[in-house]
Amino acid sequence: MIIETPRLFVKPINADDKNDLKMLYKDIKAWNYLGGARSPENIETGIKEQIYPSEKDVYWAVRKRDGTFIGNVSLTPHHDGEYTEISYIFLSEQWGKGFAFEAVSEIVNYAFFVLNFEILVAETQSANSASCKLLQRLGFTEEKRLMRFNAEQILYIRENHVCSNSFMSAGRGNIT
Ligand SMILES: CC(C)(COP(=O)(O)OP(=O)(O)OC[C@H]1O[C@@H](n2cnc3c(N)ncnc32)[C@H](O)[C@@H]1OP(=O)(O)O)[C@@H](O)C(=O)NCCC(=O)NCCS
């Protein structure tokens, strides 16, 4: 299943994405609010988890239409167990161009309209203003604040009937 947006392709991760995932793990800026730089062992484990996901996890690679890898998006069980969490990491050189919004809004659509989820959650450090802004633009609202991984986190939630203006105007991608 490949999702096309005006500028991007969003495709489930496979073994061909290994080197691009390595590059993403080595982008220290991208891991600033996610626990910082990873050890080589942790990177190997993380890449394996994405290439060979458990049946509850889905990982997508996001590429520009010319094939350039720019980031990933995932749906995985949330730490607290009840709901599915949407997460995303983009190469720092690709921030500020609207690519994350374009890709993540399509995965939100996919979760609600193809997988028929009722609720999606996202957890992000309150200090991570770019991530908080993205979630708000996607129609997520703050549910609560909590401490996890030695930092204040905001749990955001979106029910599938909520359509923010920016989400509606993002334009629906094609699923093939
Ligand atoms: C969180 C993250 C994905 C946000 O990326 P981003 O590029 O800021 O997000 P968006 O795609 O929504 O882009 C928004 C910015 O692009 C600008 N932009 C430029 N062209 C645009 C376009 N065509 N469409 C929309 N926005 C555009 C917007 O004005 C906005 O800029 P601003 O932040 O100065 O207001 C990114 O910071 C990241 O990967 N961080 C590291 C990983 C992480 O922390 N993940 C969160 C935990 S799960």
Give me the side-by-side strand order of the main sheet: 7-8-6-5-4-3-2-1-9
Taking the alpha carbons of the first and last residues, their distance comes to 6 Å
The chain-level structural class is alpha+beta
Largest sheet: 9 strands, mixed
Large-scale geometry: globular
Q: Provide the helix percentage.
A: 25-40%
Low-confidence runs (pLDDT<50, min 5 residues)? 164-171
What count of domains describes the coordinates? 1
> How large, in whole angstroms, is the Cα Rg?
15 Å
CATH class: Alpha Beta
Number of strands: 9
Beta content comes to 25-35%
**CATH topology description:** Aminopeptidase
Order of helices and strands: EEHHEEEHEHEEHE
What integer is the average pLDDT?
Answer: 93
CATH-derived architecture:
3-Layer(aba) Sandwich
Name of the CATH superfamily: Gcn5-related N-acetyltransferase (GNAT)
Task: Report on this structure.
This protein has about 180 residues and is an alpha+beta fold. It has a single domain (about 5-175), classed as Gcn5-related N-acetyltransferase (GNAT) (Aminopeptidase), CATH 3.40.630.30. About 30% of the residues lie in helices and about 30% in strands. The protein has 5 helices and 9 strands; from the N terminus they run ββααβββαβαββαβ. It has a 9-stranded mixed β-sheet, with helices on both faces. Strand 5, helix 3 and strand 6 form a beta-alpha-beta unit. Helix 1 crosses helix 2 (about 40-50). The longest helix has 16 residues, at about 100-115. The N and C termini lie close together (about 5 Å). Residues about 165-170 have low confidence and may be disordered. The structure holds coenzyme A. Coenzyme A binds near residues 99, 101, 128 and 130.
